[in-house]
Write a structure and sequence with these properties.
The complex is a heterodimer of chains A (about 140) and B (about 90). Chain A contains 4 helices and 8 strands, in the order H-E-E-E-H-E-E-E-H-E-E-H. In chain A, helix 2 packs antiparallel against helix 3 and helix 3 packs across helix 4. By secondary structure, chain A is of the alpha+beta class. Helices cover about 25% and strands about 25% of the residues of chain B. Chain B has 3 helices and 5 strands, in the order E-H-E-H-H-E-E-E. In chain B, helix 2 packs antiparallel against helix 3. The chains are: A alpha+beta (about 140), B alpha+beta (about 90). At the A-B interface, strand 3, helix 2, helix 3 and strand 7 of A face helix 1 of B.
Chain lengths: ~140, ~90
């Protein structure tokens, strides 16, 4: 993560840098989660995340951005996703991170499978994620 | 006139396949090109499990790595993926 941060800010950090990191939770809906398997569609994921970063850069006037998403087998407390944005002012940097996260959740082809004591199960998309995503579309109009 | 079909996550698991080739010549002609709906209908003929998996609500269709509706036209060499709503992040 330190390396990603260094890569994000580069030689000239600009005035405002915001980052967000998501980690594997040890519980879901009251049940313990022991591990997480993240399936992905590599070619499409690469394109979607690239477009997302470029869209965020244009919308929030970012000078630099980075998105890192892991896949495969992850343990509880491992980082899953990391986004970073560099802008002139904090508002743009913070909003850009939120926009990238909210959009990535519903648009990037990754699927979580939780492993627990009762067995494995695919995680279902949550309504809150769709609503958070839609918020950005309303604001853009 | 082949296209590549890809399946992911719960769909891949339910159908026991992650990738297959489909001959478009069976479902399309120059006069009436195939759309995503036609491909789905052809695949649904493979059995009840295919029909159930492909007609589940909220199924996502991605043509050449872009999410599309079922009226998108499919051409030779395309890659068409089916999967459940995405849950990354």
């Amino acid at each position: 993560m330190a390396a990603e941060y260094a890569e994000l800010i580069g030689d000239q950090p600009g005035a405002a840098v915001a980052t967000f990191t998501g980690y594997v939770r040890g519980h879901a809906e009251g049940a313990a989660v022991t591990a997480l398997e993240l399936e992905h569609y590599p070619e499409m994921a690469q394109k979607v995340l690239m477009t997302l970063g470029e869209t965020a850069a244009e919308r929030f006037k970012l000078t630099r951005w980075r998105i890192v998403h892991r896949h495969g087998s992850l343990a509880v407390s491992d980082s899953i996703v990391w986004v970073g944005a560099v802008a002139e002012h904090r508002g743009e940097a913070i909003s850009a991170c939120e926009f990238m996260m909210d959009t990535l959740k519903t648009d990037a082809p990754f699927w979580k499978r939780e492993e627990g004591v009762a067995g494995d199960k695919w995680v279902a998309q949550r309504g809150i994620d769709t609503r958070r995503r839609e918020r950005w579309q309303e604001e853009a109009q | 006139m082949n296209i590549t079909i890809k399946l992911f996550a719960a769909l891949r698991e339910a159908l026991g396949e992650s990738e297959l080739q489909l001959d478009l010549a069976e479902i399309a002609s120059d006069a009436s090109p195939a759309d995503v709906a036609a491909v789905k209908a052809a695949l649904a003929n493979r059995g009840t499990d295919w029909r159930e998996a492909l007609y589940q609500p909220n199924l996502v269709h991605a043509l050449n790595h872009k999410v599309v509706f079922t009226d998108a036209v499919v051409s030779e060499g395309d890659e068409l993926a089916f999967f459940p709503p995405m849950t990354g992040g």
